[in-house]
TrEMBL record:
<dbReference type="InterPro" id="IPR026043">
    <property type="entry name" value="NadR"/>
</dbReference>
<dbReference type="GO" id="GO:0046872">
    <property type="term" value="F:metal ion binding"/>
</dbReference>
<keyword id="KW-0479">Metal-binding</keyword>
<protein>
    <submittedName>
        <fullName>3H domain protein</fullName>
    </submittedName>
</protein>
<feature type="binding site">
    <location>
        <position position="79"/>
    </location>
    <ligand>
        <name>Ni(2+)</name>
    </ligand>
</feature>
<feature type="domain" description="3H">
    <location>
        <begin position="75"/>
        <end position="171"/>
    </location>
</feature>
<dbReference type="InterPro" id="IPR013196">
    <property type="entry name" value="HTH_11"/>
</dbReference>
<dbReference type="InterPro" id="IPR004173">
    <property type="entry name" value="3H_domain"/>
</dbReference>
<feature type="binding site">
    <location>
        <position position="87"/>
    </location>
    <ligand>
        <name>Ni(2+)</name>
    </ligand>
</feature>
<feature type="domain" description="Helix-turn-helix type 11">
    <location>
        <begin position="7"/>
        <end position="60"/>
    </location>
</feature>
<dbReference type="InterPro" id="IPR036390">
    <property type="entry name" value="WH_DNA-bd_sf"/>
</dbReference>
<keyword id="KW-0533">Nickel</keyword>
<dbReference type="InterPro" id="IPR035922">
    <property type="entry name" value="3H_dom_sf"/>
</dbReference>
<dbReference type="Pfam" id="PF08279">
    <property type="entry name" value="HTH_11"/>
</dbReference>
<feature type="binding site">
    <location>
        <position position="148"/>
    </location>
    <ligand>
        <name>Ni(2+)</name>
    </ligand>
</feature>
<dbReference type="InterPro" id="IPR036388">
    <property type="entry name" value="WH-like_DNA-bd_sf"/>
</dbReference>
<dbReference type="Pfam" id="PF02829">
    <property type="entry name" value="3H"/>
</dbReference>
Amino acid sequence: MNKGEERRSKLLDILRQAGADPVPGFKLAEELQTSRQAIVHDIALLRSAGEPIVATSRGYMLATALAPGMQKIEVVVRHRPEDTPKELYSLVDVGVRIVDVAVLHPIYGELRGRLELDSRADVEEFLEKVSSCKAHLLSELTDGLHMHTLAARDRKYLDEALRVLEKLGFLIKEDSQDETELETLAEARSR
């Protein structure tokens, strides 16, 4: 086994051990005593070899780490960009993981970004990154309409998340009057 193959094998071991906790690229680089660019290259090679590595705003993780024992639902929501902190904090406060965010773009189809937010600290870090990078939220592409995959170990937490989103006025339900919202809801349900 050459040096690069050995490093990639160790990288996979680190991600397996981390489970559902994303590992930042700089930490991988430190632990493997290499550059951040080498890690990016290794991740690309591992992905092309079929390894289910996903990039989140907090680092890399194995996609298989998301599923064990977790129940998932997809919700369709709409709100203004300035309501994003309220939405995200409210969801993690009831004990759900915000797995991702997705929008249905009229030209590109589904655009999905991994979030993997479990706590207020995770949300704070994500919001700080959005602010410091002056990044736009995916939901800004679709006038605030977007979807989240939510996960929890028990259905009661997912039910509570639905109640919270409805109370905030963010949840889009099947009786929506907006045709775009109904199409998005139908698309989310078909997955």
